[in-house]
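Researcher: Structure prediction, please.
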Amino acid sequence: MVVENIISGAKSVLTMTKDLLKDKKDLSIKLGYPTTNYNLPIIYGLLGKKIENIEDLKNLINSLEINEEPTLDNALDAGVKTLICAEAIEGLKYAQEKEPYKPPYVGFIPDEVLRDLGVPLVEGKIPAILVVIGKVGDNEKLKKLIEDIQKRNILALFIGDIVKEMESANIEFGLDKLLVPIGEGITSAIHAANLAIRAPLIYGGIEPGKTNEIIEYITNRVPAIVVALGPLDDITLAAGAGCIKAGVPVITNNQVPEIKGALESSDIDNIVENALKMKGIDVKITEYDIPVSVGPMNEGERVRGPDMYVELAGPKSYGCELVIVNKDVKDTVEIIGKDIEDIEEGSRLPFAIVVEVEGEGLEEDIAGVLERKIHEFLNYIEGVMHLNQRDNLWIRINKESYNKGLRLRHIGEVVKTLFKEHFPIIKNCNVKIITDPEVVKETIKKAQIMYQKRDERARSLSEEDVDVFYGCIMCQSFAPTHVCVITPDRTSLCGSINYFDARAAAKIDPEGPIFEVKKGQCLDEDVGIYEGVNEVVQNTSGGTVEEFALHSALKKPCTSCGCFEAIVFYIPEVDGFGVIDRGFKGETPYGLQFSAIAGQCSGGKQVEGFVGIAIEYMRSPKFLKGDGGWNKIVWLPEELKEKVLDAIPEELRDKIATEKDVSSVEELQNFLREKGHPLMKNMEITEEVPSEEIKEIKKEEPIEKPEMMPTSSMMGSPFGFINMIPPNTKIVIKNVKIKAREVIIKKRI
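Model: Predicted structure follows.
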């Protein structure tokens, strides 16, 4: 029966889509979501077809047919065609309406958001993505469902009547809550499906159109499950069949013929747990004996002034946080000074938190790594906002959590529990929470001495001082051939793991994804090629990558996963580099945004001319050492430039362009000449070129304008930039010495 329903639903959607397109007279209307590099991702990913306009879409949709023979294979194929039609309908909305979705609905989710989710998904902080469609119909069951989702820190995308049910129950939405309402109609579910389709394109480096590889990737690596609730019509069933075919399983509280691991039934009370089982996901839930919730779902919470019960430390008071590795540590929580129940509402208190830890293998170097976890753990607590670190910390507790009974002793218990849970190497943990003003002042003095010692050691350490680097393969769950190599001079691409973090992680969890790498003999000091690194890279990439240069974007650059904070990209016209960061919304001098450039080097690919980096790496003395370092940087977004200004040599600061200075490569060239950038000296010509030395420039065929930046195949030639010239363009070559008999430009087949 379900097979017939699916086929019937697919036929209805196909007919609806054809009728919708039939009335479209202007076939030149451009299509494609505005915040992605993947056009209409379902169609582009599964079929490899880039739908540029309505004419392209009409041709595609009119070519689709539904096989009505009631077999499972036909039903699943019909489901995929349902997804294609839904993408077509939604694509038309975005082409014709400025804002097709109004709050609380978000519609299409940009590439940028998917990339931002990469690190928490890889780390397991977000263990799964649930696509919840339909209606619960019972307020208490709804609240339990949301509670089950939140306490596991699952990202949930909602479609249909359940959004209005959540509004009526006063449940807060938002990406910071990991509860995201996508849309009201069933075709809006495509924005959850195309999120899954983009994962193999962005992180897996799989080319659009390689359908089987994309489906295999989603099946094995993307932790997404559809939860279908309440009565299901034929179109919803057809969309669900498309998801199953694409590698996303479906679970429902309806009775359906089960396909183990692909289509299953469950009562709603256990549907979240059973959904996770379908993907083999096990989430440990820690219960706390405190009056508020605890977990990553509270991390984005902010406490404004009017909602504040008490402020601890902060700009109008003082405080610090410190972790000390010690012996004979008590496993307890101590309060030194007043708890917040003993002060007036709206008060500010000095505040210090000192965590003493004991365990076999714990070393002082690990203390700084553990200390940074205090920020994360305090933000896990409902109603608590923790900002900054060390002796600049700033904490607020809101009235609601205070009125529920939250006190400082509860906060201490949470910190103690989380330290021992996250770091099994810790045997005992003593948390001291201090509000006594004099004791806080004494603690700050002690902490500042320890901070200084740690910082001096970190700043003085370089690759030459150590025999061991660290590898991280955490992102291989999404990018199978990627390995990150972390050294004293090179932070992980995501920016979250420095050398000491990696060292601590490898000690705490020897079987984990971060491990020692014996650096071995240095084969090339300038670009940073090491024998031991190459051996590990070959092994961990399955032989796909044979050699890494740690400090070059042009010669055997490191692979890039997709979680990188920024990208270095080569600009052949000036023989220099631009750097674009994830937070920059504008365009490079090539007219491309971050997502477009990221598509060139993510997915564990090694692409000469492009490399993903952490912003902190730009402060390293070995930053792109093999390529000329800061002397080769010619363009940065203004905000990024300000962020790393202290790392830029003073004589170069006004010679590096931003988006405020230039908007094209030609303008960039002029800017660099006017400012006297060091690279321009290399392009000065001492003599004119006799015209007879240039025999002929032939343009045999029109060259299609490329969608991306020049790739590694262009880097070996001084004429690499010619590959980027659009058709019917006049080529004017000035001030360049050319010694070539003939330059023939051909279209690549």
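Model: The radius of gyration is 28 Å.
Researcher: Thanks, that helps.
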